[in-house]
């Protein structure tokens, strides 16, 4: 059984707001057995996978971690909007960069739409600082890989760039954590109530029927890399 199964069935139950006892009764198993399934202690049969898929109205591929979309859909290059033209009016079409750029940009659309709910400018600023520095780091690495490119394009010395960039990202991340924890910082006032950020996989799919698929893909691929 896929290692994601126990995590996903627990997530779906908690998002629905039902107890383990209630879910077990409606799925026709004992609470003890469902508990073992949710903890990954025991593996279930395929008949139970189908039963759970029907119960939570998701696909078996989603339950097994084979698809990041609740309906088991996958994003293909044909599903993405046409590539934008560059400044010279020409198109550069390459499948991998196009897909990854769309996955990231769609995910950012969800992130920034959620940030728009909040009136704290400091939160938006620090999230943006973190993301812009990440782009800066990757662009600089690619740019400086060619010795013919002029290094003086950047003000930060090459030897200090990596360390300074990492420190700046950590500072931005710390400020975001502090603001969300309700703490006042030099970056912004703490948010006392984060109920506006309440969300579930189902609510995100409903609000962002296209963008959410990219977000699930980004989350899935990031966690696979993190857990390697």
Concise summary:
The protein is mainly alpha-helical and 228 residues long.
Question: Which key phrases capture this entry?
Answer:
228 residues; mainly alpha; 434 Repressor (Amino-terminal Domain); 2 domains; 10 helices; 59% helix
Q: Quick one: how many beta strands?
A: 0
Radius of gyration: 22 Å
Stretches with pLDDT under 50, minimum 5 residues: none
Average pLDDT reading: 85
Q: How large is the share of residues in beta strands?
A: under 5%
- Put simply, the count of helices is 10
The H/E string reads HHHHHHHHHH
Q: Please summarize the sheet with the most strands.
A: none
How many domains? The number is 2
Straight-line distance between termini: 19 Å
Helix residue percentage: 55-70%
Structural class call reads: mainly alpha
Tertiary shape: globular
Strand and helix map with partners:
Layout: H1 5-16, H2 20-27, H3 31-39, H4 46-56, H5 60-63, H6 95-115, H7 121-144, H8 158-180, H9 201-207, H10 211-226
Overview of this protein structure:
With 228 residues, the chain is mostly helical. The chain folds into two domains: 5-63, 434 Repressor (Amino-terminal Domain) (Orthogonal Bundle), CATH 1.10.260; 95-226, no CATH class. It is 59% helix and 0% strand. Helix 6 (95-115) packs across helix 10. The longest helix is centred in the middle third of the chain and has 24 residues, at 121-144. It is globular. The mean pLDDT is 85.
């Amino acid at each position: 059984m896929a290692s994601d199964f126990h995590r996903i069935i627990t997530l779906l139950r908690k998002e629905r707001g039902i107890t383990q006892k209630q879910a077990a009764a409606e799925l026709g198993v004992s609470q003890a057995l469902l508990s073992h399934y949710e903890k990954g202690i025991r593996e279930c049969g395929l008949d139970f996978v189908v039963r759970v898929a029907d119960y939570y109205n998701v696909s078996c591929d989603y339950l097994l971690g084979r698809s990041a979309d609740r309906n088991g859909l996958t994003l293909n290059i044909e599903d993405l909007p046409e590539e934008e033209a560059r400044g010279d009016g020409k198109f550069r079409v390459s499948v991998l960069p196009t897909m990854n750029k769309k996955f990231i940009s769609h995910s950012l659309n969800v992130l920034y739409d959620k940030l728009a709910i909040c009136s704290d400018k400091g939160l938006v600023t620090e999230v943006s600082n973190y993301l812009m520095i990440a782009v800066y780091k990757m662009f600089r690495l690619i740019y400086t890989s060619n010795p013919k490119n002029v290094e003086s394009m950047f003000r930060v010395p090459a030897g200090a760039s990596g360390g300074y960039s990492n420190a700046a990202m950590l500072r931005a991340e710390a400020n975001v954590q502090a603001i969300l924890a309700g703490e006042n910082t030099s970056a912004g006032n703490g948010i006392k109530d984060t109920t506006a950020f309440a969300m579930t996989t189902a609510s995100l799919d409903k609000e962002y029927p296209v963008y959410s698929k990219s977000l699930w893909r980004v989350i899935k691929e990031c966690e696979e890399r993190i857990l390697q």
